[in-house]
Design a protein that fits this description.
It is built from four helices and four strands. The protein has a four-stranded antiparallel β-sheet with strand order 2-1-4-3. Helix 1 runs antiparallel to helix 2 and helix 3 packs antiparallel against helix 4. It starts with a strand and ends with a strand.
């Protein structure tokens, strides 16, 4: 699995102020209206996927692609609202983005037993322990975001350590989402990071999670 947001050499102060003041209006609102309907369909597909895996042991390719592209769209929007990258997020399940990336291979076989356990007890052994940790980590991310805002406004640069921390929080949430969505059988790790590489495979601005 590969999940990342590009760390830019420099950031636009103008875009930073626009997103902070009006991002909810011109980014969050129009995207959320469309994503709401797509997420409702995603929930229906999730139920169909459960039975497909239980019967065949496989996650249907078309449904997998839909869920993955929906995650990509969500990341494009979240990355901008968190000021992690500049530019306006593309609309659509087929939208592309040079600043964000999610790559995940569909498993050849899905474990029927763990799929059943996730449906029945996932809230107890997956969501609950992770959410307890994420409460504190997310509070930390709020302070990091505030400090990073002033750093970008003054210097035009987003401190790399702060960037990696915020991306790490999002990555952790993503692990839970794909596991509970049956997209992987690997239990989500309690970690902000994984194996490190950037978009060109060179350094730590994008983190890989195997």
């Amino acid at each position: 699995m590969k999940y990342g947001v590009r760390h830019q050499e420099s950031y636009s102060r103008g875009e930073l102020l626009l997103r902070t003041l009006f991002g909810g209006l011109y980014i969050a609102l129009p995207h959320a209206l469309l994503l709401l309907f797509l997420m409702l369909w995603s929930s229906i597909l999730n139920l169909i996927t459960f039975w497909a895996i239980l019967i065949t042991g496989k996650f249907p390719q078309g449904m997998f692609n839909y869920q993955l592209n929906l995650q990509r769209w969500g990341l494009r929007v979240s990355a901008r609202l968190q000021n992690l990258c500049d530019g306006y997020p593309a609309f659509g399940l087929s939208g592309t983005d040079n600043n964000t990336m999610i790559e995940l291979e569909r498993p050849e076989k899905s474990n029927r037993l763990t799929v059943l356990l996730r449906l029945m007890f996932g809230g107890l052994y997956v969501v609950l322990p992770h959410m307890i940790c994420l409460i504190f980590i997310t509070i930390g991310a709020m302070f990091v975001r505030l400090i990073a805002f002033w750093a970008v406004l003054i210097t035009g640069k987003f401190p790399l350590g702060m960037h990696n921390y915020m991306v790490g929080v999002m990555r952790w949430q993503y692990r839970i989402s794909i596991y509970m969505g049956y997209m992987t059988d690997v239990y989500p790790s309690f970690s902000l990071s994984g194996n490190e590489a950037d978009f060109d495979g060179n350094n730590s601005s994008d983190l890989l999670d195997n």
